[in-house]
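Protein modeling request. Please complete all fields; requests missing the sequence field cannot be processed.
Requester role: graduate student
Desired output: 3D structure, token encoding
Chains: 1
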Amino acid sequence: MFNKTLQSIFVFVILLISINSCTDKNDDDDIINPQISAQGIIENIDTLGGSKNESGQAVKTTSDGGFVVLGFTQSMDQDVTDKTDESYDVWVLKYNAEAELEWTKTYGGTNDERGNDIIQTQDGGYAIIGFTYSNDGDISNNNGQEDFWVIKLDNQGNLSWQNTYGYSGIDTGYSILQTNDGGYFITGVLDVTASGGAGNTRNNQTQHAGGDYWSLKLDQSGTIEWSKYFGGFFTDTAYDAIQTEDNGFLIIGSSDSEDTDISNNKGSYDFWIVKVSNTGTTEWEKSFGSTEIDEARAIIKSSDGNYLIIGDTRGQDTDVSSNFGAADVWVIKISPTGDLLWEKTYGGENFDVGRAIAKTVDDGFVICGSSRSASGNLTENQGQNDAWILKIDNSGSLKWQQSIGGTNVDFAYGIAEIGNGNIIVVGESSSNDADITENKGFTDLLLIEIK
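Delivered output (451 residues):
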């Protein structure tokens, strides 16, 4: 078990706040005073790693009630036991329902590899997407500089198969999901300039440049069924995707293009959503945002059949109705046809960003990211960036929040609710004070458990 004990006086204060909050409040009061229940209590905090650099990028629940953590590691000592060099490798850690570590393994070659997303597959194993610069070790082929790298594992972390996808440039894989037919859908960024336009099986080629959303449909063994890229002449980065009821896909990320596939840029970077059919044909695309920088990072389906998309915004105009400070977490809810149903911002006076979202059993959502604020929705900041976790209900009302960190830089990148109802958050930490009791190297993998 990883551990941090909450002092009893803190619990008493939180319960007292809960009692006082039972009186009628308007929505603005709830936002400014988010600690309205005894939920959101820190159960445990741990740092994992060695003498170099580690990070946790994603966490997912598993069918046995436990969870699996994906990240990357540079170390070959302390908590990292199976590496033979100090290049970056993909790092996977499997925990049981009691948050006890069952196994940990690394995957890679002699150059750098990092993992960005993991899922448990229908056969009880795991599938991972990230990127690789290697052409040896666990990697059988490299098509240029940086390639998408997909790894299929069995339920004990043994490598079943792996494939690379890319061309001569920097091609980065960010998200993976298993499709209804047992195959996979992967998304990320294709360097279209370096590929010379390759990577697109669309019948009608249109002119693109720079980096585009790149989406590939794979069969169960990782063979490409189709691949399409979407974007314009500037920077378009796909961070997440979800399969829709009609077996198509919604792809989300950020775009600062205003041409080619993008029809309605609001200004600078926008949340850009592309709806494609099960064969990759574009059905519609929409931009949401302000005249400032707005970047979408994750999408999830709500129980009413609509979708929540989270990220961050620096604006306060057009689609963004309010802003607490320099940058806020921004959540939008859209219909299956891309209509904006509602939007809300969360944050304080400084920079606050959202990176991941997960459902909770009470039909709400938990979001994680990082914050430099100590006002607005936040009550404290330990110094620089803290990991920030917030709970909202299905209408976007803020129920509780926690910022966790030390006087150095701390981030949260992945979040999940496990079988016992606790929230698991992963990220990275450079601190060794305040909430973070130990730092093992430069940056450590940060693992947080919240009741």
